[in-house]
Design brief:
Length: 389
């Protein structure tokens, strides 16, 4: 995270005695990245965060197998056809992935169990509904359009308020704001499309009583379930730069040029081997002779995974793309507007249309994306041929 926060009770100095009302010591837990050479936070627990009384291996509920995108083809997946199969953790249906990132879709109205991803950070986009994110750091209320970024190793759970649909981006490392948006000391700069004021972290501690509490833990070796002597939500205070936060896509400030701008202007976060971009309502390109629509393009180093979450997709008219669709345009394939879309948009501009309402979340990966069974089960088999009609 780019800035420091204090939540709850902490002593004036770090690593000094901090006592409970009964005279006992609070237990420190330092959560730190990159061997404690990068961002960290210091949490103060009422009980030992190390006290576990049971451990067992867990067989994954969902299919985790990936298949190569062969024959090489652009793809269209209809997430509207995926049905709920569990909670927002156990019910994730794998859409695609590689050694850097896994992309899954989930829809559920039930609370998840406590969960810790110790393989990397997560960025969960809430497409529809409202959900309460509870963690050792506190609570974040999230709703439609929110990205919730969760640091590696954070124990948390999801409590939906009715049906919720999410896209889960699971990294093999850490997810951060792009470096070009940050000063050398980590402050978001004036040219960045969002600021610290747009980021929402937990505001107060969230303390829960309980004993013999199970936590599902994902590591590089697989899934385990650890049973903790006391509930891990026993933190009375913490401070530091590392914590979960939410950012709403509607707070992203689009960067507009006179002629069409390439996707990096939409970048929101970066992770190891991938970037996350937000396409938001914005003014159309305003040069008198602009072609205010994406040109045919081929990002030779990336696979483009685009989740269409709202608005009107005039550039894709006739392709079958709609809200809830996901397109995958792999490296090796040139893609762009559907036939007739350029002329249609130029005509609309001549009649006074000045804005676009499209909203989408895009993940560009720098290694090929393999396909998960969730995606293959809801694929539109005719999509690849729509440019040739």
């Amino acid at each position: 995270m780019p800035y420091y926060r204090v939540v709850g009770e902490v002593p004036r100095k770090r690593h000094v005695q901090f006592r409970r009302p009964d005279g006992g010591l609070y237990a420190e837990e330092l959560m730190g990245e990159e061997g404690f050479s990068s961002d960290s936070s210091l949490l103060y627990h009422r009980h030992l965060p190390t006290a576990i009384i049971k451990a067992e291996a867990v067989t994954p509920v969902m299919e985790t197998r990936l298949e190569p995108n062969l024959p090489l083809s652009p793809r269209h997946f209809r997430t509207q056809e995926l049905i709920s199969t569990g909670d927002l953790v156990s019910g994730r249906q794998l859409l695609g992935g590689n050694s850097d990132v896994r992309l899954s879709y989930a829809t559920s109205d039930r609370p998840s169990e406590l969960y810790r991803n110790s393989m990397g950070d997560e960025c969960v986009y809430v497409q529809r509904g409202r959900v309460r994110f509870e963690s050792t750091y506190g609570v974040i209320e999230a709703g439609e359009g929110d990205y919730v970024v969760i640091p590696t190793g954070t124990i948390h759970r999801w409590v939906p308020d009715g049906p919720v649909n999410v896209l889960a981006i699971e990294a093999g490392g850490h997810i951060r704001p792009p470096k070009r948006y940050l000063s050398q000391h980590g402050q978001l700069l004036e040219h960045a499309p969002y600021s610290e004021r747009d980021l929402r972290g937990p505001a107060e501690p969230y303390v829960v009583e309980g004993e013999e509490v199970p936590v599902l833990v994902r590591t590089r070796g697989g899934l385990s379930r650890l049973v903790y002597r006391h509930h891990p939500f026993d933190v009375v205070g913490w401070d530091g730069y590392l914590y979960p936060f939410a950012f709403n896509i509607n707070d992203f400030e689009p960067i507009v040029k006179r002629t069409h701008a390439p996707p990096p202007v939409h970048q929101t976060f970066e992770g190891p081997g991938f970037v996350v971009c937000s396409f938001c309502p914005r003014p159309l390109d305003y040069h008198p002779e602009a072609v205010p629509i994406p040109y045919n393009h081929h990002n030779v180093d990336s696979d483009e995974f685009m989740f269409y979450v709202g608005g009107d997709y005039s550039a894709r008219a006739g392709s079958g793309i709609d809200v809830g669709s996901i397109s995958l345009h792999p490296a090796g394939f040139t893609h762009g507007p559907q036939p007739g879309a350029v002329e249609a948009v130029i005509d609309a501009v001549s009649r006074g249309v000045t804005t676009t309402s499209e909203m989408a979340v895009m993940v560009d990966t720098f290694r090929p994306l393999d396909l998960g069974q969730g995606a293959l089960s809801c694929e539109d088999p005719g999509y690849a041929w729509t440019w040739a009609r």
